[in-house]
Specification:
This protein is an all-alpha fold and about 100 residues long. The protein has helices at about 1-30, 50-60, 60-65, 85-90. It is built from four helices and no strands.
Length: about 100
């Protein structure tokens, strides 16, 4: 009797988890991004990290991802913290300066 009850409970738990997983997957597929709300792409020429991107990082990101605090173990104020990332990134690219 206990064995039957266990099998029934395990089957019900498995069915419930599969149903939940399918529902989550269906929800992902139906969610669409409204691209009409995005701004147009920039046409600015000569964009550099130092002049155009670094100030944005310093204003918006460094307080949570800087030297004092690394939320989510992500640090944006220094290079070379992840040797695997260094292998994937071409540091000779002048756009990174």
């Amino acid at each position: 009797m206990n064995k039957k009850l266990f099998v029934i409970c395990a089957g019900a738990a498995l069915a419930a988890s599969l149903f939940t997983a399918q529902s989550a997957e269906k929800e992902k597929k139906t969610t669409k991004v409204d691209t009409s709300k995005l701004p147009p792409a920039s046409t600015k020429q000569g964009v550099t990290y130092a002049a155009d991107m670094k100030p944005i990082f310093e204003k918006s990101c460094i307080k949570c991802h800087g030297s004092e605090k690394q939320k989510g173990k992500l640090r944006l104020d220094s290079q070379g913290q992840d040797p695997a990332a260094d292998e994937r990134t071409d540091r000779s690219d002048p756009r990174l300066d």
